[in-house]
Design brief:
This protein is of the alpha+beta class. The protein folds into 2 domains: 92 residues, Beta Barrel (Elongation Factor Tu (Ef-tu), domain 3), CATH 2.40.30.170; 124 residues, OB fold (Dihydrolipoamide Acetyltransferase, E2P) (Beta Barrel). It has 3 helices and 12 strands. The strands form 2 sheets. It has a 6-stranded antiparallel barrel. A 4-stranded antiparallel sheet has the order 5-4-2-7, with no helix packed on it. A hairpin with a 5-residue loop joins strand 9 and strand 10. Helix 2 runs antiparallel to helix 3. The radius of gyration is 34 Å and the shape is elongated. It starts with a helix and ends with a strand. The relative contact order is 0.20.
Length: 252
């Protein structure tokens, strides 16, 4: 039995030595200048529009994919409750003003103290502040487009009741874009802001001239890459957000 164990051990020794001396698999070569780098087209302006009040949606005038002008109404809410609160607040303000005027008159006859007059004036200020609060809330009864663009996603429908802060729709501006890409950090030795490069967009099959606009101030230590933002030169109406492609740089 002992002889068999010794024989097996002697047979395993060469195999272990071979495994230890086996060369590791070669690492993937890092991109070189001239190699294509993947890029993503991102709009300069994009926003998720949310509700600022809890209310029922009366109408969503714009259709999905439609072009939106700046200031155009996107959402209308049912604000009957806010309108009633405004009317009540304005009535309280009128009452506070009458009380204040009465206290002022009584003071002239020495029938009201200075404290009574100050308290009446303070009540007017408080009622006015309440009116201003309700008017501000009434301003949330409709949502206007903060910039011109296209409606790319609807997250709610007419007649639904939404909560304050709930996302309602997504708006993007397709008139101006930037490209986002990651390049090897060692390229920073020759790549700088304003450097020219070429972008080939997959969806259009065309190439576009671009320049480096911003270089991120931090290198990702895991991938040893740095993020760049590039701007396309000229106007190209066929480009829309979400398109992707490759960028090609030439080392200077």
């Amino acid at each position: 039995m002992m002889r068999m164990l010794v024989a097996c051990a002697m047979m395993l020794i060469p195999l272990l030595a071979l495994a230890q001396t086996k060369a590791p698999a070669p690492a993937a070569a890092a991109p070189k200048a001239g190699d294509p780098i993947r890029v993503l087209l991102v709009p300069e302006n994009e926003a998720v529009i949310s509700s600022q009040i809890a209310a029922r949606i009366v109408a969503l005038p714009a259709a999905l994919g439609s072009r939106i002008r700046k200031g155009e109404i996107l959402v209308r809410f049912d604000c009957a409750e806010q309108a009633a609160r405004l009317k009540m607040s304005e009535s309280e303000l009128a009452s506070a003003r009458e009380t204040n005027a009465s206290k002022q008159e009584l003071k002239s006859y020495r029938s009201a103290s200075e404290l009574d007059v100050r308290l009446a004036a303070s009540a007017v200020d408080k009622a006015q502040a309440q009116v201003n609060v309700v008017k501000a809330q009434m301003g949330y009864c409709s949502i206007s487009a903060p910039f011109g663009g296209r409606l790319v996603r609807l997250r709610a429908r007419a007649h639904e009741t939404v909560a304050a802060g709930q996302p309602l729709l997504d708006l993007i501006d397709n008139s101006a874009f930037r490209f986002q890409l990651h390049v090897p950090s060692r390229w920073l030795s020759w790549l700088g802001q304003g450097a020219a490069f070429t972008i080939m967009v997959d969806e259009t099959g065309k190439s576009y001239p671009a320049r480096v606009r911003v270089i991120n101030g931090r290198v990702d230590p895991a991938s040893r890459t740095v993020e760049l933002t590039g701007a396309v030169e000229g106007k190209h109406p066929e480009l829309i957000a979400g398109m992707s492609g490759t960028a090609q740089f030439n080392e200077r």
